[in-house]
Amino acid sequence: MSLKNGLDNRDQESRTSKILGGVAATYLVLCFLAPLALPADSVPELSGRANAIDYMYGDSWGNKNHSENSNIGHNQNLHGGEFAWMELNPLWAFVYGFGDINCHQKHERSWEINGNQMPVCTRDVGIFFGFSIGCLFFFFRGFNRWTIRDTFLSVFPDEWIEGIYERDLRLFSVCAILAIGLAPMGVDGFSQLLLSYESNNPLRIVTGFGSGFVIGWWFCSAFSAKPNFFTGPQDVELPRGSRLVER
Fold first, then answer.
1. Of 120, 144, 160, which residue constitutes the final position of a domain?
2. Residues 131 and 205 in one domain
3. Which residues pair with 38 in a beta bridge?
4. Under a CB-based contact definition with an 8 Å cutoff, are residues 123 and 185 in contact?
5. Which of 15, 44, 206, 222 lies 20 to 30 angstroms, CA to CA, from 142?
6. CA–CA distance from 8 to each of 4, 17, 117, 226 (Å)?
C-alpha cells in the first residue's frame, strides 16, 4: 500500500490522536468533577510524595504526623485529618489514586473545589491540558512519514522546513522543539528545589502546558510513524525532494 506523503489515508494518525488525547482529556475532566461530586470538605489538605502511594488507607504514609517544616509531607491532623481514597467509590478512587501515585499533591500548589483539594497539582493540570491540545494539534496537521522525527515535523508546511531537510537538521529540530517545551517547566521546578525561589500556580499551569503540549505531539508522532503503511521508503515524499534510505 503506497501512501504519498501519508495523506491518502490518515486513519492511523486520527485514531492515535483521538485515543491519546481522549484519555488525557477525560482524566483532566474527572479531576474537576471528582472534588465537585464528593461531599463538601471531605478531601483535606494533602502533601505527599511524587511516584509513591501516600493516601491509599488511613494508616498510609501521608496520614502520618510528619514535621511541618519538612519539604515532603506534613502533620495531617493539622490539615483536616485523614484521607483514604480507597474509601471512595471506584471512579473517584481511581482519579485520586492515580493522582496520588503520580503527583506530590501539595495543597499549596493545588486548587480546591467544593472545599475539596483536586487530585493533582496545578502543574499537572497544565500538563494534561497541554497533552490533550498537543494531540489535537497532531490530529489536524500530522501524518505518517515513516520515521518518528519526520512524522513529528510533518505538522509544518513543507515550505517552512525545506531548510531543515536541505541541511539534514531533522533530529536537531525535533530535540530543539522538545527542549523549548520542556525547559521552562524544568527550570521552574528545579529552581524550587535548589533555591529559595517559590513558583506560583499560574506559572505552573503555563509551564506544565508547554511540556504537555510537546509530549502529546511527540507521542502521537511516535505511535503514528508506521513504515508498514508504505511499500518502501521511496514512497515517502519529504520536503526539498528528500528521500529516506534503508540501511
1. 120
2. yes
3. none
4. yes
5. 206
6. 7, 17, 47, 14
Answer whether 59's CB lies under 8 Å from 84's CB: no
Per-residue tens of pLDDT for the chain, all 247 residues: 334 444 557 888 999 999 999 999 999 999 999 999 999 999 999 999 989 999 999 999 999 989 888 778 999 999 999 999 999 999 999 999 999 999 999 999 999 999 999 999 999 999 999 999 999 999 999 999 989 999 999 999 998 998 998 898 999 999 999 999 999 998 887 787 777 777 899 999 999 999 999 999 999 999 999 888 888 877 888 887 777 766 6
Which residues lie closer than 8 Å to 53 by C-beta, 6 or more apart? 60, 61, 97, 100, 101
* Prediction pTM value: 0.90
Distances, alpha carbon 16 to alpha carbons 41, 58, 109, 140, in Å: 39, 39, 32, 12
Tell me whether residue 15 is in a domain.
Answer: yes
Pull the grid cell for residue 209: 502546558
pLDDT tens per residue, range 114-172: 999 999 999 999 999 999 999 999 999 999 998 999 999 999 999 899 899 889 899 99
Distance between CA 52 and CA 62 in Å, rounded?
Answer: 10
Q: How far apart are the first and last CA of the chain?
A: 21
Q: Provide the CB-side half-sphere exposure for 178 (13 A, CA).
A: 15
The grid coordinates of residue 158 equal 513543507
Sequence-distant (≥ 6) Cβ neighbours of residue 210 within 8 angstroms: 130, 180, 181, 182, 184, 185
Which residue range is the domain that position 196 belongs to?
A: 7-22+124-231
Query: How many domains is the chain partitioned into structurally?
Result: 2
